[in-house]
Amino acid sequence: MQALPNLILVGPMGAGKSTIGRLLAAELSREFYDSDHEIQARCGADIPWIFDVEGEAGFRHREAQMIEELTALDEVVIATGGGAVLREENRRRLRERGTVIYLFTTVEQQLRRVAKDRNRPLLQRPDREAALREMFTLRDPLYRATADIVVRTDRRSPRAVVGDIVRRVQRLVDPLQAKA
Which residues are listed for substrate binding in this entry (predicted)? Predict the structure, then answer.
């Protein structure tokens, strides 16, 4: 069987990219990188602070640099930030440098998962649901256009999602082996 390529998780906040990414990396004995955590470690500041000081444009610039770095690695699992697909250069790099998995979740599920999270600058508005719906409308087509695989995460355990991803990626890499 061919070696599995880089596996890159995209999707909205609350889809489970970090949790599923860690489990997927452990399952495949790979290194795991979360682009948002890597940006924070490099800057020595959290994302809300970066948004406050540099604005969203400044953060997106840092994010593009981090995606360039992380996708240049081999045989890794990468979780991207929810807005990583907003830039065409990021979408192109993700598609060219790995198998992209869109972790799809509904806005209702996102609301449940991020209800108490105050570390999300784009949700610092009175109507979080409206913010999430606006982001979904803009980003869902971009996630779908970038992804090789779409996996629904609602009402599924992270382990079940990981098993689904592994099976589906193996079918992409070696379709004959998957049918055996």
Answer: 36, 60, 82, 139
